[in-house]
Amino acid sequence: MKKVYLDYAATTPVDPEVIAAMEPCFYEKFGNASSLHAYGQEAKKILEDSRQTLADFIGARPEEIIFTSGGTESDNTVLSGVSCALEKKGNHIVTSMIEHHAVIEPAKFLEKHGFKVTYLKVDKDGLVSPDDLKKAITDKTILVSIMHANNEIGTLQPIAELGRITKEKGVYFHTDAVQTVGHVPVNVGELNVDFLSLSAHKFYGPKGVGALYVRQGCRMDTYMRGGDQEKGRRASTHNISGIAGLARAIELCRDNMDKENAYQASLRDRLIKEIPALIPDVRLNGHPAQRLPNNVNFSIKYIEGESMLLSLDMLGIACSTGSACTSSSLEPSHVLLAIGLDHETAHGSLRISLGRWTTGADVDYLLEKLPPVVKKLREMSPLYEK
Ligand SMILES: *Cc1c(COP(=O)(O)O)cnc(C)c1O
């Protein structure tokens, strides 16, 4: 059977060149980067070279990079670490209603421990308003956390502009850039951010490795304790193979970004144009222009996302509804509710995310198979009136 993977926002396959860069770290260069002997020093060199590659790519200094186990750990580290470090200064955090659970859940946890959190609304396209942010910041605010691009609807936030506001107010600014690093240009100076999260498995690197950018001078408590790796800022033996893979993945994205962007955006735009032409009663979710080059998200009325997903899966097509993290629960996505969809419409969403190996033929296959799947499900749906 034909197999078509259209779920790159959930995770990407590892590029073979990344695997080649990782391989030596499992046997000849297996040392612990904290050891003083030659094995350790060899691993340490890979670690520091990788740090330099990543730092250069996002416009940071190498000392400002902390390697972590991925996006979730980076997000948790910022929320918890900044709250602990600045609790004497204030107890208020500002974030948005459409953040990834890796930000929402630590924020909720902090609320149970005496912090106040403002969850900013977004407009129908998923955008945070700079004015709302300005109004939300008080003299008790210690951190603002707004994601760079949303993982479900692909909307890109005006991070540089939001960052100018936090800078003026003297408040730390974090962005979860897990969906953008490797996909669109990301420069911490231009974005005016103090903290930035990223994860390798979203840009053709391995799972279980990521990084956190921390601007020099910013105060943050340690989240992972138990060793003096990363200058005491993140304990645990360095995942050298993963870190080497992350760095190689960054190089490949860096060298091909413009070409890959343009290519994926052309496939995206075909889907955005053709799906409504083939299927009645659909609605594009996310900003029409200010969106990730690889993201398509439609609400397909009168049917359930889960049934659509399973029907497509039987035809070899892998997409997503809501986000992968919540698709096991029956609650509709908090992101789709936040952009104003009613529960029924939110339940019938389809996210198609494209990547390095998506072909025109893959898109053709989806455009051939999706309309009859929707038609059949609608015929069985009690919500659908012909
Ligand atoms: C995938 C994702 C995460 C989680 O990253 P992991 O490396 O899987 O922990 C966090 N935020 C966003 C926006 C994501 O897309």
Summarize the structure in words.
- The chain has twelve helices and twelve strands.
- The chain is of the alpha/beta class and 386 residues long.
- It folds into two domains: 4-12 and 257-380, Aspartate Aminotransferase, domain 1 (Alpha-Beta Complex); 16-251, Aspartate Aminotransferase, domain 2, CATH 3.40.640.10.
- The strands form three sheets. It has a seven-stranded mixed β-sheet with strand order 2-8-7-6-5-3-4, with helices on both faces.
- Helix 6 links the parallel strand 5 and strand 6 (172-176).
- The radius of gyration is 21 Å and the shape is globular.
- The mean pLDDT is 96.
- The structure holds pyridoxal-5'-phosphate.
Which strands sit side by side, in order, in the main sheet? 2-8-7-6-5-3-4
Instruction: Note the beta-strand portion.
Output: 5-15%
Count every beta strand, where a strand is a DSSP E run of 2 or more residues.
12
Structure classification: alpha/beta
Q: What name is given to the CATH topology of the largest domain?
A: Aspartate Aminotransferase, domain 2
What is bound: which ligands? pyridoxal-5'-phosphate
Instruction: Tell me the CATH superfamily of the largest domain.
Output: Type I PLP-dependent aspartate aminotransferase-like (Major domain)
Kindly provide the radius of gyration, computed on alpha-carbon positions and rounded to a whole number of angstroms: 21 Å
State mean pLDDT (0 to 100 scale). 96
Question: Which CATH class of the largest domain applies here?
Answer: Alpha Beta
Number of contiguous helices: 12
Q: What's the helix-strand series?
A: EHHEHEHEHEHEHEEHEEHEHHEH
Distance between the termini: 33 Å
The low-pLDDT segments are none
Number of domains: 2
Largest sheet: 7 strands, mixed
